[in-house]
Amino acid sequence: MILRISNLIAKELIQFGRDRLLTLFILLVPALQLLLLAQAIERGINQQPVVILDQDRSYQSRRLISNLDNTEELQVRFYVDSPDEMRHLLDEGRARMAVVIPAGFAQDLASARVSQSIQIIADATNTMAASISMSAASGV
After folding, report:
1. Which of 42, 47, 61, 67 is in the most buried spot, having the most CB atoms within 10 Å?
2. pLDDT in tens, 15-63
3. Do 7 and 70 have their domain in common?
């Protein structure tokens, strides 16, 4: 069994010696793939376009929007006045995430008895980008 494997290895090494182009492809293509993959991972996902539907228009909601915009992963690009406009931007792919701040957000924030909630909608066509965007928004 070991003799067969060693003969096969010897045959392949002789073949590599005869065909320089094959050797070049076998060595160069995986190295090139490794470099491209490393570059793609290094860049990461940042500056994801975000659309904001601020129904409260208070100081607290503007501060929340500012905090979202100050993250490396998110960039607030659009402000809309209706859910239809927000859906349109998400459907077109111009925005990757939407944040809906409901009316009365500032009052709920001031009241300790009421839970404060905002709605975050992520475009899940790119699951990795959606996951990173959601975790960045949750951290704010």
Report:
1. 61
2. 888 888 888 888 899 999 998 887 776 666 788 999 999 999 999 999 9
3. no
